Amino acid sequence: QGGALMLCNHQSHLDPMLVGVTLRDRGMRAMARKSLLTSPWPVPWLLVHAFDSIMLEQGAADPGAMRAALKELHEGRLSVIFPEGTRSPDGTVRPFQRGVWLLIKRGGVPVIPMAVEGTGECWATGDRPRLGGRQMLIIGEPIDPSRLLELGPDEGLALLRRTIDALRLEARAEIRRRTRGSRPRPGPADGAL
User: Fold this and answer.
1) Per-residue pLDDT tens for 106-159?
2) Over the stretch 41-66, which tens digit does the pLDDT of each residue have?
3) What is the DSSP string of 139-181?
4) Whole-number Å distance between alpha carbons of 28 and 26
5) pTM for the full predicted model
6) Measured distance CA(165)–CA(95) in Å, rounded
């Protein structure tokens, strides 16, 4: 109950859908970069109409988007952030953008790590969606923001990145177990940070 900042790795356009279905009962809004509004259909429609996303100007200060996300948190809802800022081309967890630190600092709500795995094989960057893959989402334990603030931005974001990567690797191993090794295909995403 109450507001929480949900942080998730990003492999595919499928990630917001997987997260949205999982958190549908909690009234969540995700942040998405404005440049996605020029993507092929159905991405812009999904962002605006299905997910009511908070559109963010990537690579620049966007106080309006930050205020909207903080409002969601302070009103007891969930804000979902993909802190890598873009989809990973190989499934590994990329470095986090610093803007998420402002939400951790000013939000004053628990930070909940999540990890998706397998979505990149189903809809890789630059490809069309494919059938037959396996996806999984794992939600980790809430982290008190004061613990992260004590560590400072560099160490705090590094801890979150490692935590999300550990959850991703757990999901990857579980998909392999359930598919008897046929999914996901071996590659760079098999290694830890």
Assistant:
1) 999 999 999 999 999 998 877 878 877 899 999 999 999 999 999 999 999 999
2) 777 787 787 777 888 887 767 889 99
3) E---B-HHHHHHHHHHHHHHHHHHHHHHHHHHHHHHHHHHTTT
4) 6
5) 0.89
6) 11
Phi/psi-derived region of residue 192, left when phi > 0, alpha when psi is between -120 and 50, beta in every other case: beta
Instruction: Enter the tokens of residue 64.
Output: 């309006």
Residue 148's CB: how many other CB atoms inside 10 A? 19
* Sequence-separated (6 or more) residues with CB below 8 Å from residue 166: 115, 192
Q: Which two tokens stand for residue 57?
A: 């100007």
* CA 20/CA 51 separation, integer angstroms: 8
Determine if the peptide bond prior to 129 is cis (ω within 30°): no
